[in-house]
Amino acid sequence: MANSPAQDSQRILAEAKSTLVRQQAGGRRSIGQRSADLKRQHRGKKLARMAMAVGVVLVGAMAAGLVLDGIGITGVMLLALAIVGTLWFFATFPKLKVPDLAALNSGDVRTMVGRTELWLEAQRPALPAPAVRLVDQIGVQLDGLGVQLEGIDPAEPAVGEVRRLVGEHLPGMVESWRKIPPHLRKEERAGRNADEQLSEGLGKISKEIDEITRQLAAGDLDALAVRGRYLDYRYGEGLEATPQLAVPQIAVNKDV
Asked: Are residues 199 and 127 in the same domain?
């Protein structure tokens, strides 16, 4: 006995959810809550499109059955293939795009942090192991920093400086490393190779993010503005000075 349309719809939705779960299991691990939220929104939209598309296929099959007085075994098989194909297509496409480097520092704070985390996740598989650990650590720190920034007037100059550190200078450092040919990353220059410079630079940025978060929590915007301009000058200058990786040589001044 054939299933009712309601039973078919429930089964199809269950299959759609299962497909998304399998896809999620094989996906890239999130380094922060903001990027995880963006992925969850993307999956939700996929599920909605899958349900709508399958609904259209079912309505079309029902209409064909009324006109033809049934679709027969062949029609049922074609319907099943159409449903499977629809589920596969909308579970696979569209893929979640990796944000462009130039677009990271745009939108509100929540969006900026989420985009930066997504971009770092996309670079993560190619990074050396010490840098991977630092990227994971920075992802957690970015979540905390994003919460602090949301409570401050976006027009504050200090906020703009911090946004540039997170949305431009941090990914810019990783991008500088990526531009170095793999066979040259182990060559030492000034006593360190590119992998070591990257890890050192990420470590310093991690410490700066922690210090900035503490200053934001204390409400010391004047001190934050001074630190922001200093970081913007040092990191921005270092990244623009050479196409090779340039890790700024700074000592964190707790009294700034």
From this structure: yes
